[in-house]
Give the backbone structure.
Amino acid sequence: MSKIFFRVFLITLISSTLIISFPQLPTSQAVTQENETQKEVFGSISGVITDEAGAVIPGATVTIRNIETGAEISVTTDENGEYIFPNLPIGIYEVKVTADGFNSTYRQNIALSKTLKTKLNLVLSVGSTADIVEVTGQTVTIERSTSQLSATYSARDVADLPINKQNTEGYKNYGVNPWTNSEKDRFSTFAIDVDTGSYTIARRKLNEGVLPPKDSVRVEEFINYFKYQYPNPVTKHPFSLTMEASTSPFDANRYLLRIGLKGREVTLADRPPTHLTFLVDNSGSMASDDKLGMVKQSLKMLVKHLKDHDTVAITTYAGGVNLVLSPTPISQKSVILSAIDELESGGGTAMEAGIDLAYKQAHASFAPNSINRIIICSDGDANIGKTSHQEILEQIQEYVKEGITVSTIGFGMGNYKDTMMEQFANKGNGNYYYIDNIAQAKRIFVEQLNGTLQVIAKDVKIQVEFNPKTVAKYRLVGYENRDIADADFRNDKVDAGEIGAGHTVTAIYEVQLKKQPSSNIATVRLRYKTPDAKEETPAEEVAATYDLARLKQNFDQTSEDFRFSIAVTALAEVLRESPEAKNWSLEKISSIAQSSTQKNNPEREEFLGLVKKALELSPKVASIPIKR
């Protein structure tokens, strides 16, 4: 009688132990042949389960079924939403995923073939056992099928509503600048800011049918998203200074003062050699197409527009860190593009260790008189090692002293950490962007590439001295997290903002004049250092005065640029529910934007569309009358 041989495989998957039995073989020779065959035909299926917002779903049940044999195996996703089925025979499988509060999802005809490894990331939609959210232009209704309860929420409530408790987005409220009596304090001092992440986050939210979280709105990042027709610099200074002022369209007793800077343009030929290190977050939370998928598209776009003497290194971080590509010249572009294509997601988020590795590569390619920069692509989430943004900020500041700057590019929603990403760029002497679509990636990495990469002035501070004989009180709109003590304006040890090639920077003040004003309104002073200036090198300073005679008494007769910048400022004020804008009307904002938007300017036309979306989502706000 032939012996019966059974092979028992004990496989531990997350919290499950699996025992798989295989049919009997007639002889010991057959067993040997089977062992040899299994080495060649066994593979794995793995992936990450997320919700529609991109947040990972731990505790989901993933079941696979072999179509030929009918055998089923189930596992549970870990805290990072990950699962894996190792040691599977080659064949055709179907996959089912279930989780409390979500609709089940199926995937059929999953072929495990010669590649031996199949990556399958799946997205679950909110289901009948959870809150079902239907967004309309008026209200949002939430129904629980299990209890048949219902309630009505405004569009603003939805902005902060977590979907199945998976929404862990992080924003910080920096408050709203108050009015200041010029006789008590005539100086207003702040660092410039060219970041734009807040605006593109709001754009994505509005396009998805909800108002942005009010804490996500930073006025200066709305204003500075747009280009304005400021004159090019004609002096030794790397930027021009422009001022314009008029009556306010929202309050007849107030005036608006706009201060604008325009950075010197730099051609591609004049841009110095550039050494970039891409630090890519490829953790489980980055699995969706709007995260790692968009990262890969964006970086490939950037690589294709670098010059031959530039270099690129690629590092990643998830549960651990990985050097994907050491510094490689753009002359080997195909190697770099291939490395980007091969990036996959999975694991925790060891951001601290990832930054350390990125800086080691940046040091390896560091060159004086060149651009040496790390570009962090992430959703800002960190859960391994140092996880607070303050701890990691201290780490970044040490590296900046060595001449390596940092830009942060944000991706995705659901668990997005805006505060961390914005502060990384601030302390890293770089810029912060959020990419919500491929057009935004093109804007940053193609159309405005020189400005993204090349700094033309660093530690740029603005101090406005209001004339107490003319100005009764004033208020800087935005820049709350860029405030600098008045006494530190000429303290060159105090860090400030950077401006890139061709960038424009705009600041808006609300001003209330005295009944019998004097000759001038304000004197504006700018202080900056050149990019290559040493720490001990004194900063340069430029000043200009705005006379009362230049003040325009009819808002409608101001420049299109001025009117449009006021519309953008006003929308941001309304969206963040500023107490100073409680009587400002979205209908009026829409009218101002319409009057200052040319048909051949797609970015301004898009803004006008966003104002209309906000109007639809905020009927109560829009109906507030205008003070005249």
